[in-house]
Design a protein that fits this description.
The protein has 335 residues and is mainly α. The protein has helices at residues 2-21, 23-32, 38-49, 54-66, 70-83, 88-100, 104-117, 122-134, 138-151, 156-168, 172-185, 190-200, 205-218, 223-235, 239-252, 257-269, 273-286, 291-303, 307-320, 325-334. It has a domain at 254-335: Tetratricopeptide repeat domain (Serine Threonine Protein Phosphatase 5, Tetratricopeptide repeat), CATH 1.25.40. The chain is 79% helix and 0% strand.
Length: 335
């Protein structure tokens, strides 16, 4: 009987040890783990039923990216690449996730690998140029664009990115030429028209305004286009038109704090201090860390005789931007 007990005990221990070393239960547990996100959990369930379907891993990676689950997205897209390394889209997606994750060096490494594997692929070359631009490596970006244009001489996106590179290098003439070529090839490149408007603003206001109006005609609800046009109007002393444009932006996007701030500056320019104060107040409420908005709200409070509120705003401005010397100087005057 004792021998039988020892045999049964040994078998039980062996069974427990085998269960601990067996990877299957852990894998199964991971596969069916619930995240609480219905979209992801639904895909996970499908993966347990079809583990060889590479598209499911890609879909789950995309779902993870949308909620900021970058580690999980990277794991899934890397798994997809192991299953099928012939899809350049997987490499570019991985590069985008790494960029989202502030891992730009890894992003360019992956994208360079994609270009090496698919040397004639336009999308890979364009992504390579884009990431080099983000990294402020403008010469490398332009080299990638040169390679792209050898394969596709009429690529509007390439000319637009050339314009971006030249703009950062303050080569205005070549930037304008590149943006113009981009919009000539594809008139729907809205950012090309906006950049042309900005670059022509000082030396050719009439031309500049035509570019801004073209951008707005393409998308009349684009707050970036409207904001650029409003700035142009303000810089050319068309204050009420500028304010009216900022009012339209606020209706389209009530959280667009820059529109409130810029409208406040316009009101100050025409000595409407109370209205300016209201706009700076809205800027602060839509962006509670907006240091300059605190400063200007403080300034308008001071103009209105409310020195206590002004002092508080100057202190808040310095809290969010200790280098804002205008706020520290104004605070010293109150003290």
């Amino acid at each position: 009987m004792k021998l039988l007990k020892y045999i049964l005990l040994a078998l039980a221990i062996a069974n427990i040890t085998a269960c601990k070393n067996d990877p299957e239960p852990a894998q199964k547990s991971d596969a069916v783990a619930q995240t609480g996100n219905p979209a992801i959990d639904n895909i996970t369930q499908k993966i347990t039923q079809n583990p060889d379907d590479v598209s499911l891993y890609v879909s789950r990676a995309q779902a993870y990216r949308r909620i900021g689950g970058y580690d999980e997205a990277i794991l899934d897209i890397n798994h997809a690449l192991k299953m099928d390394s012939t899809k350049y889209e997987y490499y570019l997606f991985l590069g985008d996730v790494l960029l989202d994750y502030n891992r730009s060096k890894d992003a360019i490494r992956v994208t360079n690998s994609a270009v090496y594997r698919f040397p004639d692929n336009i999308e890979c070359l364009l992504k390579q140029a884009e990431i080099y631009h983000i990294l402020k490596q403008y010469q490398q970006s332009s080299s990638a664009l040169n390679a792209l244009l050898l394969r596709d001489p009429e690529n509007a996106k390439a000319y637009f990115l050339y314009g971006q590179n030249f703009k950062e290098l303050t080569d205005t003439t070549r930037a304008i030429k590149s943006y113009q070529k981009a919009v000539d090839l594809d008139p729907d490149i809205l950012d090309g028209w906006i950049n042309l408007g900005n670059l022509w603003s000082e030396k050719g206001p009439n031309i500049s305004e035509k570019y801004f109006k073209t951008a707005i005609a393409i998308d009349s609800n684009n707050v970036y286009a409207l904001n650029s046009y409003a700035l142009f109007l303000g810089n050319h002393d068309r204050f009420q038109e500028s304010i009216d444009t900022y009012r339209k932006i606020a209706l389209l996007d009530p959280q667009y704090s820059d529109a409130f701030f810029n409208a406040g500056i316009m009101y100050l320019t025409i000595d409407s201090v109370k209205l300016a104060n209201r706009q700076f107040d809205l800027a602060v409420k839509t962006n509670p860390t907006f240091a300059k908005a605190y400063y200007y709200r403080g300034f308008t409070f001071g103009q209105l005789g409310n020195l206590g509120a002004a002092k508080n705003d100057y202190e808040q401005a310095l809290k969010f931007d200790p280098e804002l010397t205008k706020a520290s100087d104004a605070l010293n005057l109150i003290k």
